[in-house]
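Deliverable D4.2, example record:
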Amino acid sequence: MDIVKSVKKIEREIIDFRRELHRIPEMGLTLPKTVRFVKEQLDFMGIEYYTLIDGNAVVGIIKGSEEGKTVALRGDMDALEIEEETGLHFASENGCMHACGHDGHTAALLGAAKVLNDNRDAFKGNIKLLFQPGEESPGGAKPMIDEGALENPKVDRIFGMHMGDMDGGIPLGNIGVNYGTMMAAVDSIKIKIKGKGSHAAYPHNSIDPILTAAEIAMSIQGIVSREIDPVEPTVISVTRIDGGTTHNIIPNFAELEGTVRTTNEETRKRVEKRIGEVVQGISLARGAAYEYEYIKRYPSLVNTREVTEEFIQSAEKIIGRDNIQILEKPSMGAEDMSFFLREVPGTFFYLSNLGKIDGVVYPHHNPKFDLDESEIWKGVAIMVQATVDYLNS
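Output generated by the structure prediction step:
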């Protein structure tokens, strides 16, 4: 089986998949048009599948030449609430946008499915195709796991890919991979300070929630700078402060929201506890009441070392060792592929293929984000190679 030749043969079809998906972006856990497109392609390929999450996730199954192990390949399908500004002839027109490359992920998984299904005599065992909704929010991996996506047959190994230069320094056309922690855990904080409003000319009659909120925003930064080992990646960012309606009234309450990124589970627990203590302490000192909510979202994404070592050997067959970057540090971005990797040994990797709009490269989650489609075939071929190598080992 010549994997590169097989993938290059359908490269135009994979790009067309991506463009069709790019036209119909949908968000969250409700993706009717996207799922319909995926199911139509699987039907055309003759691949069996079933759905989960009220019909919004698709699990395809390809059986090899004889019984054996099972590999899962994962592709996320959802988009973002961003008005597209690329000017591409296949741009979205519905107010949402595939500004994180998930259209490419889904297209790549469809391409891998076609190659693997057409060459079932070249491998033993089974392949599960995990078309997942809701990666951006609220998370679709865990619901798929809870509904049995990794069972019957039980998955032994899993691979996933993210397009674009997620690391910020991977040369175009190369891949990046980490032997261990690849991406951070992500959590959210919500804080409401309940004070006492008054005319701003008479602040002594108030319990000022704005001042209290500002002190909290400043003080929780000290958790990172003074309580966490400086070589351990940790981020606390307050991203929203809201309170008041006009210039001369101290309001009754103020709200803060933010994000927390950690790469160590003990640090994650410590940060949650310490933010709560800071909120409580400052609120009490100012005479204010408060509400504090710490929302755990996605855990750290951790690759399995042994699997990653074998994955790199497979990737070398497609793009050569010089085009594989070993990432020493985790990204502080997050991915709910982490839930799959908690259940099954596997590897997640980056394919560096940011495209240009008017000669400029724009990052993920930007209205002018685009993919270099000429590099997508590499991600497809690498996933196919890693799958076949493992199943036949």
